Amino acid sequence: MNSKKYVKALCNSEDINYSGVVKILSDETNKNYTYQSLYGKLTRNTFTYEEACILANALGYELIPVKKK
Length: 69
Fold this sequence. Notes:
Layout: H1 3-14, H2 18-29, H3 35-44, H4 49-58
Helix pairs in contact: 2-4
């Protein structure tokens, strides 16, 4: 799953949009995220693992690597 699909899945399950994601990332990292910068990162697939962890944690999820069977 690429980062765009991952963020979309989180947004759908938590009933938030990209603007909500921007607010969460900006608040948690003290960096200036915008809708355009988030969309660009997701489109270019440069959304980092650290950003994914921050978003997941803020929404009450954990990212845990699980070995395939």
